[in-house]
Amino acid sequence: MAAPFHQIVVPTDFSPDADRAILAASELSRLYAAPLTIIHVYDPVAFPLPDGYMMYTSAQLSEMWEEFERRLAQARRDALAAGALGAQTRLLQGLTAAEIVRFAKDEGYDLIVMGTHGRHGVARVLLGSVAARVVQTAECPVLTVRRRAQRAEAALHEAAAAGTAA
Asked: Taking a C-beta distance cutoff of 8 angstroms, is the pair 116, 131 a contact?
């Protein structure tokens, strides 16, 4: 039987939720012998001011891109340490959810693994959910790694440890 996944893409915003997704994707990479690509999408935002719009200066952009590249390199090292078969990184620019979906489709990825912040109610309405938009629009499967599930798993491990220690 052929492996269901051959290439896995993991978007990161460098949050703890994204870090958990990288660990989950690393395990899938090892299980299915599927290399990972860890991506960060920079979404340029203009700030409205009375005189028009303010964008970042070229020096600020350069500094941000260097920081993104440094953090992507660390994410790659973390993925490899967690057992990923192979890992590369890409820094992209655009509207976050649309760029993730476009990249996965154009580059032939067959799985997207991403963290979700687990926002609900007003916070989700105001801030939106990149993960929800990716799930709704991606042509390949999307695995979301939830913070709440991680807490529940940790509680089960603690309970099991407490039961064996008694």
From this structure: yes
Domain span including residue 147: 8-165
- d(CA 40, CA 151) in angstroms, rounded, equals 25
Per-residue pLDDT of the chain (166 residues; tens, 9 = 90+): 567 899 999 999 999 999 999 999 999 999 999 999 999 999 876 556 566 666 677 888 889 999 999 999 999 999 999 999 999 999 999 999 999 999 999 999 999 999 987 555 544 444 458 888 999 999 999 999 987 655 545 554 565 566 555 4
Structural domain contains residue 1: no
Asked whether residue 2 is assigned to any structural domain, the reply reads no
Greatest Cα pair distance, the chain, in angstroms, is: 68
Rounded to whole angstroms, how far apart are CA atoms 2 and 50? Answer: 59
Q: How far apart are the two ends of the chain, measured CA to CA in Å?
A: 45
Q: How many helices (H) and strands (E) does the chain have?
A: 6, 7
